[in-house]
Every structure is written in C-alpha cells, then in structure tokens.
Amino acid sequence: MIFILVFLVSFSCLVYSKVISNTNVSIEMRLDTLVVFAQTEEETFSSLSDVTIPDVNDNKIKHVKIVGRLSKVERHAFLKLDSLITIDFGKTEVIASSAVDSCMNLRWIRMGSELKYLFDKPFVACESLEYVSVDDENVRYKTESGVIYDLKDSSILSVPENFRESKFVVPQWISRVSDGCFSDCRNIKSISMSKKVRYVGSRAFSGCRNLESVDLSDNIKQIQYLTFANCVSLKSIRLPEALEYISTKKPFYNTNAKFECGVSSLCKVVDGVLYSKDNRFLIYCPSYAAQKRHVIVEGTQFIYPYAFHNCLNINEIVFPESLLSVGDIVTGEGAFVGCDNITDVYVKYDFTKVGRFYVGKNIKTYHVKKGDKDLFEYYVNRYSFEPIECEEE
Asked: Which pTM does this prediction carry?
C-alpha cells in the first residue's frame, strides 16, 4: 500500500521525461517546473523548440532549473514564455545576447559561480524582471539591484527594464557601457557617468522614454547606431569633446533634444540642426528646429538617413547647390521619412548626379534653376504615377 502511494506521488509529480536526441541533455517536466539535466561539459541548450514535450504547453512552464554544467544557453532559448517566473541557470558557463527575450512575467534569474561569459544584454523585454543575481564566488561578474557588472572589462552589461530608481550614477570604476545596456528602462530619468567612461555601445539608451538627461563622458569617441533612439523625453544632448564619429544608422532617431557641441571638433549646431564642423554632413534635425521654409546650409553634401524624421512643420525644403547624396542609397533609408507636409521642393543641386530620392508623398511643385525645367520634369515624372509640376526660378 505504501509502495503504491509513493509510486502515485512520484508519477503525479513527473509529468514528462526525455533525453534529447544526439546529446547528453535530458529534460523533465515536474508540475510547472522544467528541469534541464546536462551530463557533460560540452552540451548546449539552444531553445525550447529543440525540446519536444508532448501534451505540455510551453505556457504552463513557470520555473526553469538547469542541473549540471551546461556550456551555453543560446539566443532566444527562452522566447515569449509569458508564464515563466524564475530561471536558475545553475552551472551554465555562457549565456548569449537575448537568451531570455519577451518573457513578460519573469521576475527572478540566478547565475552561478561557474559563469564564464555573458554577452551584452542577455535578458531583454522582460518588463517584470526584478531580481538578477550572480553567486558571490564568481570572479568575473557581480550584480547590484539587478544591474550586471563585468569586473574583468570594467563594464556595465545590463540594467533591468523596471529598475526602480529615477537616477542612475555609473560607478567610478566603469570604463564601458555595453550595447543595449539601458535600453527600454522606463523609470530612469537621468544618467551620469565619470570621465573614465570611453565607450558607449549601440542602443545603449534606446527606448528610455522617460529619460530626460544624460551626462556623457567627454572621453567618448563614438556615438553608435540607435544610441538615443526613441528617447522621446530627452531634453538635451551634450556631445563629448573627444567625439570623432557619429553613426549614420539612426543614432538620434525619434528624439527632439537640443544639441550642445561645446569645443567638439566634429560637430556644430546651426539653428538647432546638428551638422559636421565643415558643413559637409547634416546629421540630425530635431522636429522643434524644423522651419516652415527650411533652408539647408550651403556646403552640405550629405544628409543622414532619417535626419528629418517626422518633421511635420516643414512645408518647403530648400536644397543647396553643394548637395551630393540624401539618405542611404544602398539600404533605401530616406532622410525625410514622415515629412508628409512638404509640398514645395527647391532644387539648386545637379539632379543628374544626385539622383532621385524620397522627400515626401505630398509634393506639389519642384522649383528648379532657369533652363532645367524640361529635363527635370522628364526626370521626375518618369518615376511618378501622378505628374508633378515643375517651375523655373
């Protein structure tokens, strides 16, 4: 009788058990907990899609526990598991970027002392994540208030999206802010850092919709792609003195901040618009700086993709004679995406060299230099479904 009772209890707890083919990894589903057993040091658990659990819906998994030494958890290993609450990575050695992605109710993650390498932003779009820890015995990584630090690289790897404080001060010993480090942190309003910081990664602050100020280190040399994208509350950006490069890949996308260049040798601000120091590049025009009749500075040769994104104030745009290229001709990313109120375009440049580019969907009239009307009219209308008028100045 006792034997039967023990058997029934064991059977009720163990819903499913399986050895994954061609590996030394086995998995068991115990009520609402998925247990992964790694029997050697060379095993890689890549995704729940690799684990077939008959009659068990992924959305029933509330807890994951990895037992034994696992070499790596791959990107998107845990993807969109809304029921998942906790993950214990145990002796896992490597965790990839976005290994845990869009697990909306995940609250707790533990990593062990055997963890050797964490890629940038390993846990993304987990808006309920409150507690992230690394065992104290780990010699490379540590966590404080859910923030993950890399002691070897003197870097800050990841800040939880629901980090509670409104102000974040980067520790004095940090020299690197990793890719996507603060992305989508909804509570942070200000970030400050010391001059020791020399690198800020791509998407570092993207999606921080309540972020109002960032005090960048003057020793940062590059602004990477999407660094400030969708920071809609950002009031100002003071660019570093040592700045040498600004990515063409939407570094300020959908921001309306005022730029301050100081003694930077790379940039300058003209009527609120960010240009390179020599005027050759128009980098970004915040919507507040867009004029009804917007005149681009003479000497401008290249206009960054999305430079005038959603500048709805502009009705007339005047291009300089010096113009050579607009947007990215390889990817097709235009400079005037969302500028739907532009009706008049003034063409001073050599349109046979610059080529055709998108300015807006409601253009009524192109204004060209005397003698160019017939050629330009043919040139623009051969690509248009509806004829566009052309007038000589």
From this structure: 0.84
